[in-house]
Amino acid sequence: QVQLVESGGDLVQAGGSLTLSCAASSANTFVINIMDWYRQAPGKQRELVAHIANRGSGSVTSVAESVKGRFTLSRDNAKNTVSIQMNNLKPDDTAVYYCHANIWTATTGSVDYWGQGTQVTVSS
To answer: Is the confidence at residue 43, as pLDDT, over 90?
Structure first.
């Protein structure tokens, strides 16, 4: 079993910044194939915000057009953590942000996991 723990959600004024982090942990050896951040605003569908995936010896990252230039994804392999730095926040960024990961273990193979969600509220 793998756990994803998110942190960093908060109330911030428009134009402010926040950093969300997602840490994966397990009692078993695991490999993170993909780690994403999604968000879901009230009354809206969950949408992909940022994505990082293993590609050979490196990784590939991408962010949604709506946050490009404002949100930056980073990964700390030693800590099994992915963080998203969010700058110039707008009221439209208000949502519950969810961490998602596709993780491999020897016992389960590759499985999708979700964090519990962290609230980001941007006031105008």
So the answer is: yes
